[in-house]
């Protein structure tokens, strides 16, 4: 019995390993917004959620703008973004924190995607959609 259980577990791991390259992590808008908030400096920043393109007063208003940005870009990703970017988060990074723009003189935007993914995965749970 243990032998069959061991074989089944190995098969499941093998299937997951094979499919992981083609899978895409799926997070709610709120989870992404929470990760963006932390990646952008959390309580220590003057720009909550990294919002610089429009004025927002306080964390609550900036969160609303961040959530709207996430929602709008989900639509754009399904319409055309998927053609150029493998995942929604990669597409969102290209819009939210584009690399090489004038308002990023230190080149910090290149770390945005990695940092957001870090905070999304910090809980140890990665949700996958095949």
Short summary:
It is built from five helices and two strands, in the order αβααααβ. It is mainly α and 130 residues long.
Quaternary structure annotation: single chain
Shape: elongated
Please provide the ordered H/E string of secondary-structure elements. HEHHHHE
Count of extended strands: 2
Based on helices, strands and strand pairing, what is the structural class? Answer: mainly alpha
- How large a portion of the residues is in β-strands, by DSSP E? under 5%
Can you walk me through this structure?
The chain contains five helices and two strands. The protein has a two-stranded antiparallel sheet with strand order 1-2. Helices cover 54% and strands 3% of the residues. Mean pLDDT is 85; it is low at 18-22. The protein has one domain (23-129). It is mainly alpha-helical. It starts with a helix and ends with a strand. It has helices at residues 2-19, 29-39, 58-79, 88-96, 112-121; strands spanning 24-25, 128-129.
